[in-house]
Amino acid sequence: MKKIALILLFIAGCVYSFTGCVYDKKEVASVNTCDTTSVSYSLTVAPVIATNCTSCHSTNAASFGSGGGIALDTYASLKSCADSGWLLPSINWQLNLLPASYNTMTGLPADNMPLGTPKLGTCDLNEVNAWVNQGAKNN
Ligand code: HEC
């Protein structure tokens, strides 16, 4: 009987330390990860845009005007902004890299985005940059 109890104790200890390890790994991953290897539109980019941009850049009637008539709230609209070369100079605060098409097409001034607030956080910025450079996929 004693032996069985010892074996059970041993197994319980193993299970405990195993789950302990798994838990530790998860914790480290969630603190340190800024994964730019294959950035997802739906999981990563859309939430960044929703948090920082669509209050002004949405086709929603109330906010459309406050974004100069530029919508970014759907995949198609964000993709077309990325493809025209407007998105990255704007969020990277490199307006000298905005193509001339921007002013001629919109007649609007160019400003760093998000308008009137600090630059996006480094991780958000790296992820959006990577997503565009990976082809702005609908993934
Ligand atoms: C407070 C409102 C507001 C917010 C928030 C905002 N924008 Fe804008 N955005 C504008 C306005 C207004 C314009 C039209 C040009 C101007 O007046 O500067 C504009 C223009 C742009 C342009 C055209 C090029 C340029 O830089 O002027 C891009 C691209 C853009 N915004 C992307 C974004 C992105 C991406 C975000 C979020 C990270 C964002 N904007 C957040 C109001 C906003």
What does it look like?
The chain has 139 residues and is mainly alpha-helical. The protein folds into 2 domains: 1-33; 41-133, no CATH class. It is built from 7 helices and no strands. It is globular. The termini are far apart. Heme C (HEC) is lined by residues 52-53, 55-57, 66-68, 70, 72, 81, 86-87, 90-91, 102, 108-111, 113-116, 120.
Q: Secondary-structure blueprint of this entry?
A:
Blueprint: H1 2-32, H2 41-52, H3 61-64, H4 75-83, H5 87-91, H6 101-106, H7 122-133
Helix pairs in contact: 2-7
The structure holds heme C (HEC).
Search tags:
139 residues; mainly alpha; 7 helices; 0% strand; globular; binds heme C
The unique ligands bound to this protein are: heme C
Radius of gyration: 23 Å
Note the total helix count.
7
Number of strands: 0
Sum up the overall morphology in one term: globular
Mean pLDDT equals 83
> How many domains make up the 3D coordinates?
2
What is the helical fraction, as a range of percent? 55-70%
User: Based on helices, strands and strand pairing, what is the structural class?
Assistant: mainly alpha
Strand coverage percent = under 5%
Q: In angstroms, what separates the terminal alpha carbons?
A: 57 Å
> What does the largest sheet look like?
none
What pattern of helices and strands is seen along the backbone?
Answer: HHHHHHH
Low-confidence stretches: 6-23, 25-30
